[in-house]
Amino acid sequence: MWWDENDPQHIGDTPWMHPAAVLYLESLLTPDMTVLEHGCGASTKWFAKRVEHVTAVDNDGDWIAGLALETKDFHNIRLIPLDSVIKTVDPVDLLMIDGYNHDRPAWMMESDRLVKPGGIIVLDNAERKHYDKGCLHLMEFCYKPTSIVTYTGYGKLVITNFYRVKGGKIKWI
Q1: 3-class SS at 161?
Q2: Whole-number pLDDT of residue 173
Q3: Which residue, 20, 26, 137, 156, shows the most beta carbons closer than 10 Å to its own?
């Protein structure tokens, strides 16, 4: 199920989010988009089938190595095993923040520089209290998020927030 643990030897083909969040995310994508993922795996392969380019960052070298084998036939994926990329990438159309739990607030605080005007920021597990400061920062330059609120099969609350950066050609509806 979508809430169960993954391992680098068995990476699926669908983002590790509630199916409703995946459907909503898919409705936002266009083939010419660039994506930056904090955290990678099944979502990396899924994005690569739908957008122009994916840069995926993870701080687990074994995970990156496993994903590299799984994605060797994809030519639009760049895998980076260090979080230092947060300072060096060009702005993208979509930023997916779903990597190492303790790194997420830093990615949220840098997201205004990482995402183009009109772009999208996806924050999975937005219900976690230590993301509150980062969520307040996102509200400084984004429209109010669309939230997908769900529960795992174990009864755990999971919220995925979709933010649209103000500016650009697209207005948040």
Answers
A1: strand
A2: 53
A3: 137
What residues form DSSP beta bridges with 127?
none
Name the E strands within 16-113.
34-38, 53-57, 77-80, 92-97
Cα–Cα dist 128/92, whole Å: 25
**Within 10 Å of residue 140's Cβ, how many Cβ atoms?**
8
- The backbone torsions φ and ψ at residue 21, rounded to the nearest 5 degrees and listed phi first, read -70, -40
Residue 162 has pLDDT above 80, yes or no: yes
pTM of the predicted structure, to 2 decimals: 0.90
**And the tokens for 58?**
């993870």
Name the residue among 145, 87, 146 with its Cα closest to residue 111.
87
* Residues paired with 165 in a beta bridge: 142
Strands laid side by side in the 115-124 sheet: 77-80, 53-57, 34-38, 92-97, 115-124, 157-164, 146-151
Domains of the chain: 19-164 (3.40.50.150)
| Torsion angles phi and psi, residue 152, rounded to 5 | -75, 175
- Cβ atoms 109, 87 nearer than 8 A: no
CA 172 to chain centre: 18
Structure tokens that stand for 83 in this block: 């979080």
DSSP letter for each residue of 94-120: EEEE-S-GGGHHHHHHHHHHHEEEEEE
